[in-house]
Amino acid sequence: MSVLKMRTLPDPVLRQKASKVSKIDGSIQKLIDDMIETMHADAGVGLAAPQIGVSLRVAVIEIPGEEVITLINPEIIKRQGERVLQEACLSVPGYQGEIKRAVTVKVKAQNRQGKEFRLKGEGLLAQALEHEIDHLDGVVYVDHIKDQSKLWELSE
After folding, report:
1. Domain layout of the chain by residue ranges
2. I need a surface site. Which of 38, 78, 111, 138 has the fewest CB within 10 A?
């Protein structure tokens, strides 16, 4: 396993809609393992493949105290509610912003064995699901911020 280089804005890979994974083979398994290691090294809650320069629909999420969730070809099938929260991103280092996200999110995806599953997320999991799937669609959380006073630089 390897810790991979984090891509940051304005890297164009972060603005591309990622390609669907057609075959889950050894290269995808290695990608997932490297993504988990990279996420841990950067103390992230989630990581999408475009953030490490791979334009494929793969994401990993690990809520503190929970198992890692691997999402291949994920799609949001339902959102409920709306809440305002603070969000940051490994691909936008040194900044945090206030954005609106759903209260609950339902997603369908494949696991690393290729089996389709559905997942309902609330709280931090719902936020992470929306955030990582946004990355797969070429969207970064700062795109949701219309009022620049809602984005601020973090002090070291």
Report:
1. 12-145
2. 78
Q: What is the CATH T-level fold of the domain 12-145, as seen in this structure?
A: Peptide Deformylase (3.90.45)
**In angstroms, rounded to a whole number, what is the distance separating the alpha carbons of residues 110 and 58?**
9
Question: Active site residue: 62, 132, 153, 156, which one?
Answer: 132
Closest CA to 142 of 75, 82, 83, 92: 92
Q: Please tell me the number of Cα atoms within 13 Å of 74 on its side-chain side.
A: 30
The residue that leads in pLDDT, 25 or 155, is: 25
DSSP 8-state code for residue 31: H
Residue 132 annotated among the catalytic residues of the structure = yes
Rounded-to-integer distance, Cα 41 and Cα 134, Å: 22
CA–CA dist 56, 125 (Å, integer)? 21
| pLDDT, average across residues 71-100 | 97
Which pTM was predicted?
0.96
What are 25's two structure tokens?
Answer: 């083979």
